[in-house]
Amino acid sequence: MILVAGATGNVGGELLRQLRAEGAPVRALTRDPARAGLPADVEVAEGDFATPESLAKAFSGVESLFLMMSGNETAVVEEAARAGVRRIVLLSSVAVETRPDSLIGRVHGEAERAVEKSGLAWTFLRPGQFASNTRGWAAQIAQGDVVRTPFGQVGLPAVHPGDIAAVARTALTRDGHDGAVYALSGPAPVTPVEQVAAIGAAIGRELRHEESTPEEAAADMAAFMPAEIVAATLEFLGSPTATETRVLPTVEQVTGRPARTFAEWARDNADGFR
Ligand SMILES: NC(=O)c1ccc[n+]([C@@H]2O[C@H](COP(=O)([O-])OP(=O)(O)OC[C@H]3O[C@@H](n4cnc5c(N)ncnc54)[C@H](OP(=O)(O)O)[C@@H]3O)[C@@H](O)[C@H]2O)c1
After folding, report:
1. Pfam families, alphabetically (predicted)?
2. Ligand 1: centre distance to CA 221 (Å)
3. For the segment 227-259, what is each residue's pLDDT rounded down to a tens digit?
4. DSSP of 143-162, one letter per residue?
5. In angstroms, what is the span from residue 206 Cα to ligand 1's centroid?
6. 127 Cβ below 6 A of ligand 1
7. How many CB atoms are located within 10 Å of the residue 259 CB?
8. Dist. CA 54–CA 33, nearest whole Å
9. Which of 7, 12, 87, 180 could disulfide-link to 121, CB 3.0 to 4.6 Å?
């Protein structure tokens, strides 16, 4: 049995679909099954990383676990090991490599170390920017044809969450990935200006990018993110390191299929912007 944490999210949701499509035995974890909106025939388990004892039932009979960073990994992983889990694929971040001292690098690094110490088999996925972060523009697109963001000309190789999921699925279901650290990117750098145009093309509208200041963006983000994460995110978006802008062959090397472009992500997710 494979347990997918974050099954209602971008990566876990894709992973759940892919594992079901190949007929793998799979269970979805959520804090609230009633609100999860998962298909009726999915095996769903309730549990919360904040209270690891709540995960005992979800972990029961599980051999392989797809795990996300929670800030409580040591206790979560102990609970998993107690329940007999043998392998963990952890969704981490490129920031562990590129910005180990930033908040984002630190929390993901701590998660990796907790999993390493568990004695279980592990694989770490270290993606950079997700294509799905642009979902945050949906409210602006609902109101008009202009999307305002800072750093409109800064390109990052945004990765399709379905490709992260495909790497996770491979590591969860095939041998040969234990101890691997996979840095993941999309197939080409894409700027916010280009992302806005691609979403417009996907929904059949002429959308336009307008430059906002980092201060304006920080004020908007402060509504749903702690200040230290806002600062780290804006630093990453505005001044990426050479390592953060590199295009990596990992998705294709691991899955046998090329990484999908941002335009493909926009087409796959057009309904979220209509
Ligand atoms: N966005 C990026 O650019 C980026 C880049 C690198 C790495 N990452 C990593 O990717 C992660 C986000 O992945 P995503 O976009 O797929 O997630 P997401 O769409 O933001 O969804 C979050 C998921 O986490 C689950 N969750 C949240 N708190 C939980 C808790 N206390 N106990 C159990 N489950 C909990 C939620 O499930 P329920 O609500 O159903 O319980 C939901 O399925 C980040 O945390 C980060 O570690 C992101």
Report:
1. NAD_binding_10
2. 17
3. 999 999 999 999 999 999 999 999 999 999 999
4. H-SEEEES-TT--B--B-HH
5. 31
6. yes
7. 25
8. 14
9. 87
What is the crossing angle of helices 214-221 and 227-238, to 10°?
140
Distance of alpha carbon 251 from alpha carbon 185, whole angstroms: 8
The band of 271, judged by pLDDT with boundaries at 50, 70 and 90, is very high
The whole-chain average pLDDT of the chain stands at: 97
Are 59 and 65 within 8 A, CB to CB?
Answer: yes
pLDDT tens-digit readout, 36-90: 999 999 999 999 999 999 999 999 999 999 999 999 999 999 999 999 999 999 9
Hey, whose CA ends up nearest to atom 45 of ligand 1?
Answer: 69
Give the alpha-carbon dihedral of 92, 93, 94, 95, to 10 degrees: -120
36, two tokens: 């999860």
Kind and range of the H or E run holding 26:
strand 26-30
Check if 246 has its Cβ closer than 6 Å to any atom of ligand 1: no
Q: Looking at residue 259, what is its pLDDT? A: 98
Confirm if 69 and 92 have CB atoms less than 8 A apart. Answer: yes
Per the CATH hierarchy, to which homologous superfamily does domain 2-273 belong?
A: NAD(P)-binding Rossmann-like Domain (3.40.50.720)
Pick the residue whose CA is nearest to atom 15 on ligand 1.
Answer: 10
- Residues in Cβ contact with 163 at an 8 Å cutoff, skipping those fewer than 6 apart: 184, 186, 251, 255, 259, 260
